[in-house]
Amino acid sequence: MKKFRLLTATVVCTAMLTAGLTSVCASAEEKTVVTVWVNGGEDAYVPVVKDAFEKAHPEIELDLLLVPQEESFQKIMTTISTGGELPDIVDVNLDNLGQVLDLDLWEDLSSDPYNFDESLLMPYMTEALHNAEGKLVALQGDLTTCAVAYDRNLAKEYLGTDDPDELSEMLKSTQDYIDIGKEITEKSDGTVYTFASAQDAWGMLYAEMVDKPFVSEGKLDIDDSIGEIYSFIETLVQNGSLDLYDQWSAEWVNNISQSETMFYSCPLWFVHWGLASNDSVGGGRWGVLKPSSGATSGGENYLISKSSDEDKKQAAFTFLSWLCASEEGAKALYDGGGMVTGFAGNLDKDGEFYNIEDEAYAGQDVLGVFLDVAQMDSTRTRPLTKYDSGIFASGTSVLTDLAQGMSAEDALQTVKDDIAGKYPELEID
How far is 120 from 163, CA to CA, in rounded Å? Predict the structure, then answer.
């Protein structure tokens, strides 16, 4: 039927052109333009996704504004506070999502005319996409599970194996990482470290702190989450297991090629954009193992503006459904940069994304590890609050001091004082 309508429109349009009715003909061929503010100004996957979608839906054109990550959320909040015009779709990182989720600015995708089927998304991610009224107002665009990357050469030398399943059996708890890290330090005479920086150690455990929100009923609750991370880092420092690089500094990046660090916290994007692309040695040096418990971090989330025109809202929903909840969208994201979406169909072990051998990781099915983590019983997205990004900033502000000898107790108190200054309304022990 669609082809018949298109053919009919073409014939009618040709006749109208003959009659000189060009304005009517132009409107018949107009596309619905959907504006999107994309969080991240240099993401390689963006043009690939855009081209694939527009080929699949030629009636829709995506008008993408790529906003640098450090400016993206502020641009959204400034637009909201000044009453400016939002795009049809906003892209919000998970750490900031709690600040906007309950604003009455977004379409309810669980009701008419959308009626989005949440079973199309991986179960671990859906709860965080609802506002306080239980309305589905966001869709998550990428797989956010985390793993632990390791140097295969070092693992063979100091742990006796580079097999990811055997290593997973050896590393089932935070204490296991401490004990094995101490053993590596001693065997290597202090030349090999468990982690390259305090930020790497933080990243591994932060991704596992998913069971409860940082703020509940107006009270800050971080002793058993962030406080535990600080104790972990303090012990690593005491054991000589933590190197002193600053994550993403030139020295830290150069260290990736030196075989001096055993483990790296590893969200999916880090597999290639963090390790493989910065390793000048290569040769299949890397492996990936499952975390000791389900781990997730970050992720891009898309919301449709209530203020948009109805035809643009529907076109925006068509795009987000395609991107977040279809095989085609998942493949486009993977083709653009090795990432995949949270589409539940990706969990099919006989499907598109299992059993892909990765040369940089000695032929390991790396993506399969992340998909397996998505199915762990302990994997979930931490309940969101409007304080999350501020708490994260405070929490990471003391990591360099911790690496240089600050105690976990002092670090936690420093962070609590900082949070109290930001959010005086919170009850803080």
Answer: 33
Rounded (5°) CA angle 159-356-146: 55
The runs of H, that is alpha helices, within 160-282 are 164-170, 174-187, 198-206, 226-238, 250-255, 270
Whether residue 68 contacts residue 40, with contact meaning beta carbons closer than 8 Å, is answered with: yes
What confidence category does residue 15 fall into, taking pLDDT thresholds of 50, 70 and 90? Answer: very low
- The DSSP H or E segment spanning 311 is helix 310-324
Q: What is the tens place of the pLDDT at every residue in 338-378?
A: 889 999 999 999 988 999 999 999 999 999 999 999 999 99
**E strand segments, 68-113:** 89-93
Q: Are 293 and 231 in contact (CB under 8 A)?
A: no
Half-sphere exposure of 187 (CA within 13 A, CB side): 18
Count the Cβ atoms, other than its own, within 10 Å of residue 218.
Answer: 9
Task: Tell whether the model's pLDDT for residue 16 goes beyond 80.
Answer: no
Q: Quick one: DSSP state of residue 89?
A: E
**CB within 8 A of 240, min separation 6: which ones?**
185, 190
Contact 181, 236 (CB under 8 A): yes
Tens of pLDDT along 86-99? Answer: 999 999 999 999 99
Tell me what pLDDT residue 73 has. 95
Tokens 């991370």 belong to which residue?
229
**What is the chain's length?**
429
CA–CA dist 411, 226 (Å, integer): 10
Find out whether 128 and 212 touch, Cβ atoms under 8 Å: no
User: pLDDT of 371-405, one tens digit each?
Assistant: 999 999 999 999 999 999 999 999 999 999 999 99
Query: Which stretch of DSSP H or E encloses residue 33?
Result: strand 32-39
